[in-house]
Give the backbone structure.
Amino acid sequence: MAPARRLSRWLPAGLLILGLAGCGGEAPSAEAPGAVTGPPAYGDTIVEASIGDISGLIPNITSDSASHSVGSLIYDGLVRADRDLSLTGELAESWTISKDERTITFHLKKGVRWHDGAPFTARDVEFTYRYMRDPKTPTAYAEDFLQAASLEVVDPHTVRVHYERPYAPALLSWALWVLPAHILEEPWRKGVDLRTTPQNRHPIGTGPFRFHEWKTQEKVVVLANPDYHRGRPYLDRVVLRIIPDPATIFLELKARNVDMAGLTPLQFRRQTEYPAFAKFFEKYRYLSNSYAYLGFNLKDPRFADRLVRQAIAHAIDKQEIIEGVLLGLGQEAVGPYKPGTWWYTDQVRTFPYDPDRAKALLREAGWRDRDGDGILEKDGKPFRFTIRTNQGNSVRIQTAEIIQRRLKAVGIDVNIHVVEWAAFINTFIRKRDFEAIILGWGLGLDPDQYEIWHSSKTGPDQLNHVSYSNPEVDRLLEQGRRTFDRERRTAIYREFQRVLAEDQPLVFLYVPEALTAVSSRIRGIEPAPAGLAWNFIRWYVPQDAQRYTR
């Protein structure tokens, strides 16, 4: 529920709503006014739904949005994004940046305690820094910390981070969750994989909620931290129910056994437009801070050919997907950024639906139907591949079906393989065992996408899983993070988008609207550019509307 960190994340499905966060653009809007009124009160439970289980409770070493969102309830960073996406202190009381922009000094809050009562100090920040830099740490997010030259503990409540060169994402990188040194440092020093430690199943954090229970594939429960340094959350308890079937989630929502869930476009447009639903739920919609894509394994010689990728882009009718699958609740994606952000541009090469052009490009690439069966061949092999996507996301599955039909029309035979989320990520994505995938990226609060697109990030547990490599893109990504000058960064990242659009390492499909239903008994929701959940600890249920005593 907490606002997402800057980390880029694989998005499991539109039905997962934990971690709602925006990134520029308009604030979410409610579809209907709530009926429940009353002053803020402590108590009650919010029950949420997710089609996928979390993968661990040390979020620094996970990459899925469910784990990050639960982690954000349990852990804090030094900084966080406020309602307008400006950075403000979380565990840091304040900070200063040196004139040469190469040193940040953080002044930590005093009196903060871990959930087990141990004091939070600079030692925890130092441990987190060192752990994230450790080459043995299985994390996709080491890069920010490797950019720092050193970290100096000035006193128990002051740390100073030095960078050899200006590093634009530096401050935001400290939104990463700080880990407890008094629990994890000793096993880490002994070489223990922290994923095997109790912290990964029974975490101790400094965040607004304390871990209570994780029943694998069933639920995760956290309880309000009465001593939270930003004030006790109003809600007593958050329950994340793992419900692998989206249809079941919707039934549970309508039965009021779930208080909050993402809706599909069909559910949002047509299946919730009746008085009883409007009485018990409010609906919110806003342009999601994410995009969906058709990705290729670029180590496959067929997809290493840019002409082929461009041909496939021309063969796909994005508007057909947006109108037919999203029911108009989304926009065409032309690159890896959200429209409305200062670094976004749509002044890039586009590939409008043009099957004749697609066929011409495929011919130019050497693909021809030599045996008259309607399928193109090259070197004696038919152009046939499999698109993998995850179970529980009807939008992606329907998107795959439309793409399958459109590619068939230009002579490419596509199979679709729908895989359970954890298997999809762990068996196929991490091991690079795919020909093509339909997946989504959640976006951070900074245009730096070094971890996703730089050629040095193609290894295991790293995020460039399509194995993209382009020296020009590498150069732009490296330049973009070396200046704090916004005008200069704008120019760099717009050029980056132009190169990507020409290259089409992915077919950027669409930016969907986030569609959310929240029980109308829950008050305090203030839609903002940061999304719905930026002030989650201030959400409450008026006393006379509370449903759960425990």
Summary: The longest helix spans residues 486-503. DSSP finds 17 helices and 22 strands in the chain. The chain has a mean pLDDT of 91. The two ends are 20 Å apart (CA to CA).
